[in-house]
Amino acid sequence: MATTPRIVAELGRPETPEEIADRKAASSQAYRSSKTFRNLITALLVTLAVVAVIIAAVPRGSLDEPEPVDVAAAAAQAQERVEHPLLIPEVPGDWRANSARMEGSVWRVVYAPATGFVRVAQGIGVDETWVSQTLGGFAPSGDIAIDDVDWEVYEIPASARADNISYALATRAGGDTVLIYGATDAATAARAAEGVADQVRRLQEETP
């Protein structure tokens, strides 16, 4: 017995074979699209779960700061090589010594006070252009006496600073030149100058 074709309400008549095929194709496409979307959501959730596990496994807390440099010990080792007295600045206890080493003919100590940084450099036998070259060609803006040692003052304007150097003091110490400079102010640089004053005077006195 033949089956009576189903009448589609929207059409008011039975579907043609082409319309039936189109409807089934559209339904199949909608199903596949829905399945693909669900798969994408599932994959995204799995990825987020993996990321959460990785983040949870990462150790928390900050890295320990390296120990401050022992300036006196570093100077003793360097003096064995250069056979020349090296400055060991006497600075406040809260100034952290980040490095102390020979760089060519220059003994350089870098401190981190409460703000900025201060470098105490001793140029061994350097010529008169060394300070200017180190400070980017700047000339002194004045002079000052600190603990009976005369220093040239360098005040570097913000617009012309290199390496954040804002202030410097320089003096001759026998055949050497001592340069105190950094991202610092006059008072902090003066404190560093006081910490090497006795040693600078000895170098001056030992030079004929």
Describe this structure in words.
- The protein has 208 residues and is an alpha+beta fold.
- It has two domains: 45 residues; 136 residues, no CATH class.
- Helix content is 38%, strand content 25%.
- The protein has a seven-stranded antiparallel β-sheet.
- β1 and β2 form a beta hairpin.
- The radius of gyration is 38 Å and the shape is rod-shaped.
- The N and C termini lie far apart (132 Å).
In short:
With 208 residues, the chain is α+β, with helices and mostly antiparallel strands.
Domain module tally: 2
Helix content: 25-40%
Strand % is 25-35%
- Average pLDDT: 84
Features of this protein?
208 residues, alpha+beta, rod-shaped, 38% helix, two-stranded antiparallel sheet
Topology:
Layout: E1 7-8, E2 13-14, H1 17-57, H2 71-82, E3 96-103, E4 106-112, E5 117-123, H3 130-134, E6 142-146, E7 149-155, E8 167-173, E9 176-183, H4 186-206
Antiparallel strand pairs: 1-2, 3-4, 4-5, 5-9, 6-7, 7-8, 8-9
